[in-house]
Amino acid sequence: EKWLWEAIDSVFAPKLLVRQVIIVLALQTGVASFSTISNLATLVASRMTRKGKAIRNLKRQMRQATTFASWQKFANHLDELEGHAEWRKEPKCTLYDHVVLQHRIDEIQHLMHSGDVFSLMFHLRGGISRPQYGVLHEGLFSRAHAGTKVMVEQYQRTLCQA
Predict the structure, then answer these.
(1) Fewer CB within 10 Å: C terminus or N terminus of the chain?
(2) Each residue's pLDDT tens digit, 110-139
């Protein structure tokens, strides 16, 4: 019987297993506690600081907006307050190829001004039918409230004009 317990102890290592389960539970509890405390601190800060109050007020106004124009105005103010307006204006980003996209915008605008309808149709068909240059990357649409990168919006407007 002693050899059986020694075999079970060496194969399954219950002491080690129990120790590892306790460590995992302690780590999970620590992470959950940190997350809760962090969320609570953010909530308290948002209620006590001027910036936090302004952000809450703008979000409330966005929810209560009755027109897109008023919603857009509040979203732009919120982006300025949170620093996302600068992110939108800066064309450089790892989420999309801004160099190729700017070249594409310039190329389509040149074709529109030159009146070359056949080449314009050829370029549009290739650009609209499949996602290119990373302009549909999820990260471009989840950061700012009022929109995405200005260059991506310019590309979309150029495609619509063409």
Answers:
(1) N
(2) 999 998 888 888 888 877 766 778 888 888
